[in-house]
Design a protein that fits this description.
This protein folds into 2 domains: 268 residues, 3-Layer(aba) Sandwich (Aminopeptidase), CATH 3.40.630; 111 residues, Alpha-Beta Plaits (2-Layer Sandwich), CATH 3.30.70.360. Helix 1 packs antiparallel against helix 3, helix 5 packs antiparallel against helix 6 and helix 7 crosses helix 9. The protein contains 9 helices and 16 strands. An 8-stranded mixed beta sheet has the order 1-2-4-3-5-16-6-15, sandwiched between helices. Strands 10-12-8-13 form a 4-stranded antiparallel beta sheet, covered by helices on one side. A two-stranded antiparallel sheet has the order 7-14. With 387 residues, the chain is of the alpha/beta class. 35% of the residues lie in helices and 28% in strands. Strand 3, helix 3 and strand 4 form a beta-alpha-beta unit. The two termini are 27 Å apart. The structure holds nickel (II) ion (NI). Nickel (II) ion binds next to loops. Nickel (II) ion (NI) binds next to loops.
Amino acid sequence: MGMIETRQSIAEEIIEFRREFHKYPELSFHEKRTSKIVADYLRSCGLYVQEHVNGFGVTADLIGGGKGPTIAFRADMDALPIQEETDLPFASVVPGVMHACGHDGHTAILMGAAKLLTLEKEKLKGNVRFIFQPAEEVNPGGAIGMIQAGVLNGVEAIFGLHLWSELPSGTFQTCCGPMMAATDRFMIEIEGKGGHGGMPHKTIDSIVLASHLVMASQQIISRSIDPLESGVITFGELKSGTAFNIIANKAVLEGTTRSFTPEVRNTLQQKLEELIEGLEKIYGASIKLDYQCGYPSVVNHEKEVKISLEVANQLFGFDSTGIMKPNMVGEDFAYYLKEVPGAFCFVGAGAPNKPIYPHHHPRFRIDESVLPKAAQWFCQLARKYLE
Ligand code: NI
């Protein structure tokens, strides 16, 4: 087969694999079937494969024909606890589990990239490590365990991508510095004193206190954070009360904070603590805060962003490649970037002429025609970096 025919058949394989993973999605830390398919395929490409890295993680090493550094490419393999509501012929057959973030595509793309690179490995002046990690979707994330298992040993730089349904298919974006947020989580338990709805003076009203807390915490963003920095405090849950005429003795609030820098991250936590201490005194209630740090922010490195964009310019076209506005979603790719330089990039996968659903939505879909191009991006990136 000629090179073009081979490329075409790899492109078809990528889409087939993506559909296969989509039909049989697996939750975080349960990627048994997926990782087996990945490992078998990479082995058939002639790579040095390691299975069961941090559970169901897989790594594969491609040794180039010439001597040079090693770079790493990473994909995530897990799906989400969501009941799929698409009418795709390859929709999930696993009840309550769905690839609603595009990780099926990420896995298939990187498998294709591995195969493409094996075709030209003699020409490569260095090595490529392919990292397929479990559990991107749940804290503490699969990345930490992969790093502890040594997947970054000897790696000079790392790259990863995320398909993004809210960008038009065939576009490519990334940026230097903070690109995605640190995602922390908190739970607040307010213990007041219940009583008769007509006699508030004999109670400590947990609902009034909770309301005060929610409103006052919004001022942490507006009054304690530099207006040129970014931060979010979101209360996603507020539970309290039993009847319309009873003053609630208890309220439970849960939420998340988002930030790009360690300074803002610390300020958000610290100010929330101070606010709670103050409210305890004012109201005479007891308030417990459970603050859990999630993923740090994804911070891209300049040199790696530059080369990512150069390659994308050639492949996706100058008009379709751009500098991204950072967003407040989280990604455990952040941990790799704390260890070695690298870049995380977004590849637009919004299906043309179809309604766009956000990631983690039961009707989420991607335009899979972009997958082979994304595989080529990895491939050309390796060639260029190792030049
Ligand atoms: Ni994702």
